[in-house]
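Action item from last week, closing it out:
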Amino acid sequence: MEDMAKIVGANLAELRKRRKLTQQELAEQIGYSDKSLSKWELGNALPHVDVLKKIGDFYGVSVDFLITENAAKEKRREMKDERSNMNKIVISCMAATFIVLCAIVIYLYNILITKDTNAWVYFLWAAPICFFLTGFMDHHFWGRNLAFWVLMSLFIWTMILAVCVHFYVYQGEQVWFIFLVGVPLEVGLLLFSRLK
């Protein structure tokens, strides 16, 4: 029973601190004295089940959560991991947005200053750069995973497409046979993905 009181106490203290509440503030919220809360958090006493239910409802957790060892610390760690993952996704999206912004600036420069009517081709070059950059960041943040290999595959094919369209628009040459280069590159990428 003493171990259970310590487990519940540690979880209660962790949940209260996460909400940035004092024992007095929490006591007012749930209708018990701050002395009772102090005893519970120190593990000197164990609240009744109905009190645990009331506290669990206040924090949005179950009674089972409150009586599970290190549950509150694990939940905090999971929340940090989720925030960290979200930050990584936002950073990758910001990098891709920067590439698109650069393409827009280059496009506007060519349209307004050099009067190049084919400046839209620069947007095609932005695609493989975005795929490569986000693939590199994905690999850096999460290691080799399916998203990395898909992004690298998209990099290969959009790079070949950009080269072909660029040659066609600016040189008038059809170099679609360059797509054949993509086949061994894709096979090489697939084989590289299987390396341990």
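Closing note: The CA atoms of residues 23 and 35 lie 8 Å apart.
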